[in-house]
Protein: Adenosine deaminase
Amino acid sequence: MSTPPPPPGPAPLDLPTVRTAPKALLHDHLDGGLRPATVLELAHHCGYDGLPADDADTLAGWFAEAAGSGSLERYLQTFAHTVAVMQTPEGLQRVARECVADLAADGVVYAEIRFAPEQHLERGLTLDEVVHHTLLGFEDGTAQARDAGHDIRIGCLLTAMRHAARSREIAELAVRFRDRGVVGFDIAGAEAGHPPSRHLDAFEHMRANNAHFTIHAGEAFGLPSIHEAIAFCGADRLGHGVRITDDISVDDDGRARLGRLANYVRDKRIPLELCPSSNVQTGAVPSLERHPFDLLARLRFRVTVNTDNRLMSATSMSEEMVKLASTFDYGWSDLERFTINAMKSAFIPFPDRLRVIEEVVKPGYALLAG
Structure:
């Protein structure tokens, strides 16, 4: 009687294999994920001559170097070039379509992509037209990915710039398009001097319409930003939120002590949209090794893995996961937990979230775990 072969072991946790794992992404900026070659081509077509390089490789290197200055303000300056080439229907649709293609090729099965419509009006488009053409691009990209054998769902978040005064208008825009692909609202931009409470009327409009929103908070600015986002504004999620560790102390014996705000964030299961590579680039944390992702994960905060800006950080979801796994000795079960965290926190209906978790995420990771 022959002996049955031993069960296969876990797949190697390396970049090619992680690319095959189903992933969910909650925090990715459309204008931070362009292909360098696309930036060059769109700049040529629209007559933009302000790029710092004229070939794709050099341009990609410039974005990564400029974004890695350790300053959030300098990091944000790189977007002037990508936004400049996203001012036409063709440019918006192409960038959105290619975004979906790149994420699908990286094994992402669900993604929420955010952008600020108010930054794309320089050539005469209206806010509604900007959103319309971007959603068309997402639809085209989703259909093309499906034809290529990649099933991916995209939700769009409309972002208002926190230093401007159009947040209520953008919130109304998000509600107006929420049955056509927009799943939520966000505010972004430099935190210092621009507290989220300045935009209370926008958040009140979202709540009045039973609509979802996240807030960039706790990245460059500390606990006051997080407290306002939650206590005054009622955020469903925290964009980054990495500075919640300012309210956590760790004793010499490894025991963690949580302050009232940290306890509240954990108790309420408020998702943290952590972006490891970006957090290092902007100076929110000193290095990946000292990133509090692992501390927060061990303390059972609802941590999620995100890219933030794939062009500026020269990264992908798979690369972020591999970096975390290598740094903190994570296995497939850990990556599965982070992915399920993201799907639980997505701004789509509960049955849709559950379907992705049960039919895509769990079977996918079970296969990889062996």
Observations:
- The chain has one domain: 15-357.
- The mean pLDDT is 94.
- The chain has 16 helices and ten strands.
